[in-house]
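Pilot study result, target chain (160 residues):
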Amino acid sequence: MKIPPSQHFTPVSFARQFNVDAATLEGFSKQDRKMGETYGKQSILGIPFELGEPNQLNAVLLAEDSVHIDLGAVKATYIVFLHVVEDRVSRYQESLADFAVDGNDLGDHVSDYILEYLDGEIHTAPILRRFAIQQPHIMWGASPFAAVPASHPDVHMTAT
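Predicted structure:
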């Protein structure tokens, strides 16, 4: 069931900051984008987002350069980001289960979100793997601690 977008949120377009077509990223698959369901205007858990369009620059890749978004004099109680970090193979010990893409890596620094307020105050929010962000493919028990998954959980039949 899709939750309609709440009127208590205002989406911010990142169209001018898009610097990559997500379909060109290594490891991208149509399954990850559910056959085009996550392009354009979307409501994710009742929060409206303006995502890019297919086959053009439609995502922000923070590989090397920073991105600046000027919101002007917008007043907000809080800000919600829709983001993901690339999958990583977990390395528990040399040659021991070093093939699993299970999402258990914990606490590695991914990025910083720097908020600059109109009064000049600056707040830096570190984005740490498995806390404020999580990779798309995880195993049981690897959910993020301080983030909410953008998709609903899947239900699978048991072996018995």
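One observation from the pilot: The two ends are 28 Å apart (CA to CA). A full batch analysis is planned for the follow-on phase.
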